[in-house]
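Submission checklist for the structure archive. All mandatory fields must be present; incomplete records are returned to the submitter.

[x] Identifier: Nitrogen regulatory protein P-II
[x] Organism: Tetrabaena socialis
[x] Residue count: 205
[x] Sequence attached
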Amino acid sequence: MLARTATTVSTTSRANKCCGLVAPRVAHARCRQAPRTQRRASVQVRASGENGKPAVKLASYAELESIQCDLSAFPTVNFFRIEAIFRPWRLPFVVDTLSKYGIRGLTNTAVKGVGVQGGARERYAGTEFGLTNLVDKEKLDIVVARAQVDAVVRLVAASAFTGEIGDGKIFVHPVAEVVRIRTAETGLDAEKMEGGMEDMQKKKK
């Protein structure tokens, strides 16, 4: 009896040292088992220009700030609508920049669309987009006089720019006429905003 008791205590002692469990034989057997092999899935995330495609040319800020729009197809048109589509989180930067330079007449719309960002497997905001997935964007519509088109396009492009695929696009459309509802004014009188870009440029002179 004394020998059996001593053996049991000794086994329990070894088990406790191994993994701290009371059941001696079962616990000790588990401690000797090799750890299970776990499967690990590795995901390689690349920058937009590295997703199996040649590197995309990135504009410099100097290039963005020297954009010139070709309006020669509409020589008699006095007004143009600038339609800018870009990333949602750039909206405050774009609106703030336009406001600082006197552009206060604009319309904002939340839109969804497919472009290069949705045309290839891309990651944006923690979500992967495929060929037909619509991506959230913001759209600004700004109607300006012909002389202000280049300046406004440059401001929007520079403030919406990140250098990644999905920065957006700017479209310039001819506008036949502008009418201010409150005063029934038309043409340049209707388009002009008091204290806007034109007035700010006059003050500088």
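[x] Structure attached
Curator remark: The chain has two domains: 2-30, 60-204. The domain at 60-204 is CATH 3.30.70.120 (Alpha-Beta Plaits).
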